[in-house]
Amino acid sequence: MGWMSDENGLDKCAANYTPLTPLSHLRRASHVFAQRLAMVYGEEHRVTYAQYHERCTRLACALSGKGIAPGDVVATLIPNVPAQIEAHFGVPACGGVLNTINTRLDVDTVAYILRHGEAKLILVDSQFLQLAEAACAQMDGPKPTLIEVPDVAAGHPASGRFETYEDMLAGADPSFEWIMPQDEWESLALNYTSGTTGRPKGVVYHHRGAYLMTMGTVVSWRMVLHPIYLTIVPLFHCNGWNHSWMMPLIGGTVVCCRDITAPAIFDAIADEGVTHLGGAPIVLNMLVNAPETERRKFDHQVEVFTAGAPPAPATLSKIETLGFNVTQVYGLTETYGHVTECIWRGEDWDALEKPARAAIKARQGVAFPMMEDITVMDAQMRQIPMDGTCKGEIMIRGNSVMKGYFKNPDATREAFEGGYFHSGDIAVQHGDGYMQIADRAKDIIISGGENISSVEVEGVLMEHDDVLLAAVVAKPDDKWGEVPCAFVELKPGTRPDAAALIAFARGKLAGFKAPKAIVFEELPKTSTGKIQKFELRKKAQMLD
Amino acid sequence: MGWMSDENGLDKCAANYTPLTPLSHLRRASHVFAQRLAMVYGEEHRVTYAQYHERCTRLACALSGKGIAPGDVVATLIPNVPAQIEAHFGVPACGGVLNTINTRLDVDTVAYILRHGEAKLILVDSQFLQLAEAACAQMDGPKPTLIEVPDVAAGHPASGRFETYEDMLAGADPSFEWIMPQDEWESLALNYTSGTTGRPKGVVYHHRGAYLMTMGTVVSWRMVLHPIYLTIVPLFHCNGWNHSWMMPLIGGTVVCCRDITAPAIFDAIADEGVTHLGGAPIVLNMLVNAPETERRKFDHQVEVFTAGAPPAPATLSKIETLGFNVTQVYGLTETYGHVTECIWRGEDWDALEKPARAAIKARQGVAFPMMEDITVMDAQMRQIPMDGTCKGEIMIRGNSVMKGYFKNPDATREAFEGGYFHSGDIAVQHGDGYMQIADRAKDIIISGGENISSVEVEGVLMEHDDVLLAAVVAKPDDKWGEVPCAFVELKPGTRPDAAALIAFARGKLAGFKAPKAIVFEELPKTSTGKIQKFELRKKAQMLD
């Protein structure tokens, strides 16, 4: 260890040590980029960094005034509008822990998250007020204070039944002193992942990890000062891959996007000059398939990070001619979002034909700069041969890995066994070390960028009186990438039809999680009785 | 503090916590950028990242084999050639602390540094062998093992009297396991600064600070992947502003530059495609004043960081037309190099006339992204009015501030009083917060990018039998920026001439520190007997 012969007087002090936190980026930007445009939403909301900082300060003050103490959880049910982004700074600036909840979830799951996360307060967009109220009504234990975030321009006016976000801000002190972390390991955010078992797990982020994620992403996304970023990735997914926390670091402008449509995206590029966006391959499909009338011309190149599933080669070919450069990235909620990227080796690959280029772009690639080691290992945690054929599990070590699962030390211990985070994703590694996902060990179905736990859907189907056994796998889908397809073994003598079973599932699950196709048959099993999902996936590929 | 209601199982572990160190950058680059060109020196030395990593590994192994244990100091007396850069990774990779010594220093000072730093081993370029041997001969206590680094192409072949660097590497194990820091606060480098008192102080860097310096510099220098960096800033100055540690992070190429001449710089830009370089204003002057025959044409823009003194407006105007974009940065050895930058606000300043642009570019600007707070304060450590007139001291807080001075806890405590590093530099702050240095409180003279302590020079002059009192200030100089000018009050009845006194000083000081002009007069003093250096500076400005 590199301690010198005499380290007397060489300790940490206020002058030479500051806990790493993304809060520092906005504090600096409020001085360095004070008059630059920080955020845009529609015609009305155009704020500078000085104003953005003031709004976050007011939010922190207001939350503090409502009794939010350091370590308390503040939840949100908001799409990608300014309040959701401001919560990323305002909540931690009063010491709170931000819990952005997926607005597409069902009442039962939202109630579970609120109870498990112990949210003291929830900011709710008027569109999702019914969901929030139903969840609060259903949950056990103390219920969170509800603050309403109306969006009149989008057709969601205030209900009149709750204090509104803007009223709360108006009454707060713009000179409130931010509560900065004293230890960079303090908790910053709580994100529930669908996981593989019935109930979602609460992934805890710390300030250090988010800070380093922002520093590494600047490098990986080849960003210089003042990018214009369109928020397509929902902020309730890994806090939008931490991009909101990154923008003040580089004096960027965030362009909010409430509803993800091709015209909205093309307009933002053409009118606001968007330079960067991230999104699932379904977003790329949307752009490629947009009719001529919905497209807009622009003469700069837009850098796109895509993740969730490899984009189809046909999509890649088409979108590049439209002015987008696509980079495949890979990560999980447990890793703050993307931690690997398919770094493009122009000198080797620029001259390749389109199909070969697309095949490479479908790789998940190599570690981001802030990560220490990401590789593929066999069951004994040995490096697999890098031959493009041998399979193993992607294993992740580095500073942008979660603290662990909230109130679930057993799951945390299991996830971190042997000093790496076990991703659960099965991959090969090419000769140059680039990883490529071959299978998903955890049976996650990715539909329109949303993770669906097959186990959760199976659980619901199994609740139906007629169902003996259910196995849910991904079925390829032109629009959504994948949709859930259920194989069901019925109890003897029963004959429900598929539509009835789908309706049953929809009654208990968020709409996107319900199976889109059902096949009745005896399920193929191994000698030990384990369902052979591999066989079912092959069958699902064949369906219409 | 942001600790949640239940933090059970959310501790640091190998999966989610790695001490920050620039060593990680080269480890990652050896995989991610394995076949990319990492370093160029002359015709012969062109190595990839895989090879660069292997050479550093061999160096670490060899040092370890020679008994260098973690925490031991390894010194160098080498110009900017590959061995000096490899030492930046190879020394810490065996747990050692790197002490790059200024090759322009005198024997006495080098001996002092070797003794005070307790170097166990020193790598010495053949050109500086005489200096190193004389220093070793003169020093008290255990002497370092000397390894010679010949440079045949540059006319400095091996003496034959010491083991050579390449022989040492050839005998080492390329699979040696790097010794990574277990605590990011461990010491990484030791850099002696001229300071203000007679003897230099040993500034200690830690791994965390250097890592964050590299991350912040990518943002500030607006770098994307694969820059081509020319090493003009000596690596014995703040480790070349940490740029060697940064390059592997972005897969850049380092082009070594042993002797700084206009043809060498233009050739590197034209032949190797250099995109970035750093240097004192004297380097800019050299380029601007180079005869047409020494210039080369190139059609890209070269980004230049300059520091030490503001470049003259005339220089700035000329160099921009040659294809260079200059950014003024500011920092000290105590801050790992640059920590403020004059971020260019194009939307406000692009349209200004050249003199107005040059005036702005002469500002030291605002904090780098990895710094927490850099501002100007009065003697009571209160923020000064930002009016461009009031003066105060630049105060610095952040993660790229030294651990402290080696074996000098009193000086460390004084430097960090009140939770900020006291820079000693006097500045004004403009309305937008941009700082501009107005005076140097510590009387440092900056000559050709080298710091000269006026107190040190005064001390030598005072050793002369005829001298009663000596005060040294900066005199403006077209070539060197500043040179030392001495005002001397003689003892009654003595009449030495200026040439003799300069020769006397040259015998005791490095050549660049000796005064270039001497004025004999009674020194102006305050009522309390303090020399009015302010008056002397005015006089020095008037001299021919």
Task: Summarize the helices and strands and which ones pair or pack.
Two copies of one chain form a homodimer.
Chain A: H1 23-32, E1 37-41, E2 45-48, H2 49-65, E3 73-77, H3 82-90, E4 97-100, H4 107-117, E5 119-125, H5 129-138, E6 145-149, H6 165-170, E7 187-193, E8 201-206, H7 207-220, E9 228-231, H8 238-241, H9 243-246, E10 253-256, H10 262-272, E11 276-279, H11 281-288, E12 302-306, H12 313-321, E13 324-332, E14 337-341, H13 346-349, H14 354-361, E15 366-367, E16 371-377, E17 392-398, E18 404-405, H15 409-415, E19 421-429, E20 435-440, E21 444-447, E22 450-453, H16 454-462, E23 467-477, E24 481-490, H17 498-506, E25 517-520, H18 533-542
Parallel strand pairs in A: 1-10, 3-4, 3-5, 5-6, 9-10, 9-11, 11-12, 12-13, 24-25
Antiparallel strand pairs in A: 1-2, 7-8, 8-18, 13-14, 14-15, 16-17, 17-19, 19-20, 21-22, 23-24
Helix pairs in contact in A: 1-2, 2-3, 4-5, 11-12, 12-14
